[in-house]
Design brief:
101 residues, mainly alpha, 2 domains
């Protein structure tokens, strides 16, 4: 497993904050699993980097990487947008849309 410093260099991350280092360590830990990860945090903290790190160190690194900005999905529809829905599940659901995950 790469060191924190080499990960920071590879992904252009600057800083040595305890919270940053813990986030990177957690990213490396979950990269070996087959679970979905939701990354949350304040605006401007670099949330887009953590999933890229997880993807690059996972067994799926040769597959396509798809990032989804959950903040752009209207409230109340995130389940449907991410995991799909059945035709007729709610008003206006006339088709079975493709599932992202």
């Amino acid at each position: 497993m790469d060191s924190l410093q080499s990960i920071k260099q590879r992904f252009g991350i600057i800083g040595n904050n305890l919270g940053l280092n813990r986030a990177l360590e957690k990213a490396m830990r979950v990269s070996g699993t087959d679970i979905s990860v939701l990354v949350i945090g304040e605006s401007g903290v670099g949330k887009e980097n953590i999933p890229k790190i997880i993807h690059q160190y996972s067994h799926r690194k040769h597959s396509k990487y798809i990032a989804v900005n959950c903040g752009a999905i209207p409230e109340g529809t995130i389940d449907s947008e991410l995991f799909g829905h059945e035709k007729g599940a709610f008003t206006g659901s006339n088709t079975n849309p493709p599932r992202i995950f």
